[in-house]
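User: Predict the full complex structure for these chains.
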Amino acid sequence: MKSIDALCWWLEHTALSQTIQSINWIVPAIQTIHILAITVVAASALMIDLRLIGVFSADRPLREVSARFLPLIWWPLLVLLATGAIMIIGEPARSLKNPAFQLKMALLVTVLVVTALYQLLLRRDPGLGSPASPRRGTATAIATLSMLLWTGIIFAGRWIAYYS
Amino acid sequence: MTFPEGIEQFLKWLEATPLAVTILENEILFPWIESVHVLAIVLVVGTISIIDLRLLGIASLDRAATRLMADVLPWTWGAFVIAVITGSLLFSSNAPKYAHNFFFEGKMVLLAAAGVNMAIFHLFGLRDVARWDTAQRTPPAARAAGTVSLLLWIAVVAFGRWIGFTLH
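Assistant: Here is the predicted structure of the two-chain assembly.
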């Protein structure tokens, strides 16, 4: 037996997994909390990305828009990881062995790297968001990449249900 | 809920339209439309909550309320239009079943309530906005509108998720 199968088998037989499987409102309730946390992350990322492109709050410094919304990309991740973990424990094989889930995790890691790099770049170059910045192309590229990746994450998340 | 015969017939007609049949029978069309629907709703709820938190006096306090609304709401409306179009397509594919689903009916009622709440706020709650636009402390009417909006949209997401677990 492959180790992932062993892990899924073990998880499925834990008391917690049995509880999640036997109470039928747990999964939709956890998924609701998961989606609500995603609304916070995705809208916050969108606000920063639109500001980076220059089509949102253009009169407000990028630094301020980032200070408002960057924490709301990072902190809800804890809620997403917790609720995501509960869903995995409830149905390990349906998630861990699912190509849509694996793609979602790869996209998530990528977007977090992109976000961290953006944060570093902004710290080094506070003028990044200004219309006169020589890095306008970079700013647009970061924003486009971020929006595509978050869209991919949400799509892949929905597709987990169709790949079992 | 039971509907008048005319509405039942309309739901059956809708379900039999070529577009609805295509969505139901094509294996990947439904999940694709559903993915766009989820993305749109996520952005509607996420952006509205930015406004709600400002109305509650909790966040974005360095920005005038009307200014924040002018910045954010066009994106909210854009996402809402996409959510309505994709939602209608999903509905058409199984119209009678959705229409008789408790959580779908509840979601529509909650959406209508969110619309009424917004209309009341725009008609009455914003009348004296000049007095508190840049203030960190917002008046009770604004706080009430923000609270009601947050709760209704959270419920919309919950009811929407429950449709998928009860539509059988």
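Chain B has a mean pLDDT of 97.
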